[in-house]
Amino acid sequence: MIARSHVTLEDVAQEANVSLATASRVLNGTTNVREDLRDRVLAAATDLAYTPNVHAQALAGASHPMVGVVCHDVSDPYFAAVARGVLRVADRNGLLVMLASTFHDPEKEIAYVSTLRRQRASAIVLAGSAFEDRAWERALSAELEPYRRGGGQVAVIGRHRNLRADSVQPENRSGAKALAAALAGLGHRRFAVLTGPRTLTTVVDRFTGFREGLAEAGVELSEGDVFEGAFSRDGGHAAARELLAAGHKATCVFAVSDEMAIGAMTALREAGRSVPDDVSVAGFGNIPVAQDLNPALTTVTLPLEDLGEQVMELALSGTRGGRSRVRRMGGEVVLRESTARTRRRR
């Protein structure tokens, strides 16, 4: 028997051996549930002395349960793949999903979270990178803590420092480190890195891991080897143009996202540089189009749809005993035609 303190809707569903969605429909008064399932849920709720919290009671009066998902750019192929996983789990649980795009603006992220609180979303999912900004952290916590205390559920993708929330964390740092080792193994010793803004945790983790991997291979990366742009296809294009204008002699360019790598490959092609004959290019994420490029893109593959499914499952199942849960998702280096073995140059 489950202890009666801190009994959640998930506990009731588990005790009754039904889905979370079925337990929710029964306890919210929905009539479209089989009688035997209804009886099991009500009996389990009585047994466990389950009492819906204030937030859940408010939601019971809503026309349809809703989950809010906040990302940086809804048009980003990386997020589009993650969103498929989110929407699949939401559909299985009879939930509507409200998508909000911040366009990498931390103030907009705070504003959207505040709006979702007012809309009484049953859960909030933060699917975009955290910001390396203490003021943003404090403002976000100020919105989410009362929401959590009122019964709302929060789950995030990625490393969010000092935020009490369940999280699904892709192994950005170790994946980039492994990629650096693989590229050094192809003989490359002169690297350039195209980064997004280093105010984004995802960018910091990938850049740090790549630099560590090169250091272990005996290759030093200096600030003169780093070119920063927007965390997008256009940002990669602009950063690669800056690299070309600087006359950088890299034999291999690492872009911290596949979108940036795609922009970089276009800029190199426009400048008459062949990939990989003149310069190798690698990205990170393995968005669906990466393998269809010509040449196909070397990258670190992440289970993007699975990331979405896992974070939504965490959001719906709720945190137990105030302790945040962490699920880590590993990445795997995939060497494709955009990178080639090189001769060492003096």
UniProtKB/TrEMBL annotation:
GO terms for molecular function: DNA-binding transcription factor activity; transcription cis-regulatory region binding. Residues 7-61 form the HTH lacI-type domain. Keywords: DNA-binding, Transcription, Transcription regulation. The keyword Transcription applies. InterPro entries: HTH_LacI, LacI/GalR-like_sensor, Lambda_DNA-bd_dom_sf, Peripla_BP_I. Pfam families: LacI, Peripla_BP_3. CDD domains: HTH_LacI (cd01392), PBP1_LacI_sugar_binding-like (cd06267). PANTHER family: LACI-RELATED TRANSCRIPTIONAL REPRESSOR, LACTOSE OPERON REPRESSOR. This is LacI family transcriptional regulator. The lineage of its organism: Bacteria, Bacillati, Actinomycetota, Actinomycetes, Pseudonocardiales.
